[in-house]
Amino acid sequence: MLIKKMLTVFLVLSMAVLAVGCMQKPPVTEPATETDTIPSSTPSTEEENKVEGAVAPTKKSGRFVYKTSGGMELAFHLNQPRKQVYEYAPLIVNILGGGWTHYEVTNSHYDYLTKASTLSMEGFASMTVSYRGSDHGEKMPDIVADVLDALGYIAQYNDLFKIDLQKVVTVGQSAGGHMGLLLALAPHDFLMKNCAYKNFSYNCIGSVAMVPPTMLYKDAETNRQLFPTWYEQAPGDLLGHLFGINVSVNAEPFIQYSPITYVSAHMPPVLIGGATDDTIVDPKQSILFHQAALDVGGNSTLLMLENADHAWQAVGGAITPSVEEFHRLAYEFVSNLVK
Fold first, then answer.
1. What does the pLDDT look like over 192-246, one tens digit per residue?
2. Using CA atoms in the order 283, 289, 291, 292, what is the torsion angle rounded to 10 degrees?
């Protein structure tokens, strides 16, 4: 009952700060014309960014192999806007969850926002990214670097793709929401240190995160509460497989890869969708992140779905507000980022 009473208060507070400015959001511009100059994200020569296993594109939409690692092809699926509004399209990056395990995209079937909204008609491109995972022995820095390397591939061939990498919106669920928040909030030089693609830039103008882990470590008792299912599976080494070290030996990497570490008054707008009956990622993960952002004047909106579990399935009653209502709010949120 206490959590549910808190939810209404947090939601009201979040709407009050929706208009707060953000550090990374670029000045509002008119749609590009043929004479406008788009900030270049393309490396000076293709040779500088030659990456193992990358296959040069021959089309603007579809599946693209952006690199190979250990014999594993990593690809993304890109949908160009159905209506060209901008010369260079803002980009929605969909990041799937699954406990930071390997995700392979074969098509665009899982596209959180643009498939069921007008965002594609409003000029947004969207991509869904494959990445390696802990089930293949990969550690967190390399998993995050995979998502960024997909952007690096676009930068290398942006004469063809015509994507505005200075207007990126991340959208993710669970572990995907965690990585999307990191891309939006954490210092780029820190995240990109393991990237295969070099000399490119991007800018996140907003992030939508559904049931995201936002704090990987604070202390043992807090983590017992925030990751109840995972803690039971590995009580002495919670998430240690993601960093190759026990948190009791060195907690710094866990803190560095916690989105809550990077909340600030200048953060880009963030929309969080939590679930009151989530038994995998405790709902306090969403609440604590949101409150931390508000405490420093950050631009955060929180919507908690009552009677929803981690997969947003109903538990003991109708989900309120509905999943459809959250999606409508998310469409409006993303659309307003470029207005």
1. 999 999 989 999 999 999 999 999 887 777 777 777 666 555 555 667 888 888 7
2. 150
Distance, CA of 37 to CA of 47 (rounded, Å)? 24
Q: What is the CA radius of gyration of the chain?
A: 19
- Its sign, for the CA torsion 110, 113, 118, 122, is negative
- Do 300 and 290 meet the contact criterion of CB atoms below 8 Å apart? yes
DSSP 8-state symbol, 279: S
Q: Determine the Cα–Cα distance for residues 334 and 339; give it in Å rounded to an integer.
A: 10
Helix (H) or strand (E) holding 224: helix 220-226
Among the four given CATH numbers 3.40.50.300, 3.40.50.1820, 3.40.50.720, 3.40.190.10, the one describing domain 2-24+52-216+257-336: 3.40.50.1820
Q: Any residues with CB less than 8 A from the CB of 153 and at least 6 apart, and which?
A: 51, 54, 64, 66, 67, 76, 197
Residues 75-105: b if buried by 16+ CB within 10 A, e if exposed: bbbbbbbeeeebebbbbbbbbbbeebebbeb
Domain ranges of the chain: 2-24+52-216+257-336
**Cα dihedral: 282, 337, 154, 156 (round 10):** -120
Distance CA 339, CA 332 (A): 11
pTM summary value: 0.83
